[in-house]
Amino acid sequence: MSKKTASNGANNRSLIISAAYKLLAEEGYYAATMKEIANAAGVAPGLIHYYFSSKDQLLQEVLYVAGDRYMKEVEQWCNTLASPQLLETTFSEPKQRVINEPEWFQLRCELFALGLRNPNFHEAVQVMLSTGRQCITRLVCQIAGGKITKPEAVAGILLAAFDGLALQKLVDPDFDLESAYCVLLQMFTSQLSEK
To answer: Which pTM value belongs to this model?
Structure first.
């Protein structure tokens, strides 16, 4: 395979994943068709089936790619930000993502619902949640040092709060996301001052 062919293949796959991300979030899993995704990606419908055997596999790949992107962001934050900035970023980034990239949370909610009913998605949901907890655990440990004795448990609670607050804002545009995040941050920082 030539470098140009390999590059085109990677680019086509990336275009398909990006288009699927957008359409699956906007229309939902059942409404978005492979043909629509192909049209949005600017590729032939058969090309999607070349890369992905089913819409299930495509959605899972979309979420794995998005999760990998988040892990790399967290890695960068941990390597470049001092503790005060890391704390602020840890709580401001998911809040801003609800506003700037609501499709991320729409896809997560879609996968949660699918994962409850469709065994094909159980593993993808487990991986998505586990990856999120691992990333947040790393942030908690770096911010708090040893001041939080159960960082994994705190990460699980924060992940649930981030997803739950996003869901509330997505279904109720009048929900006061800013105030909720202020309280969540206060709850977290109060643990740091107890030790």
So the answer is: 0.84
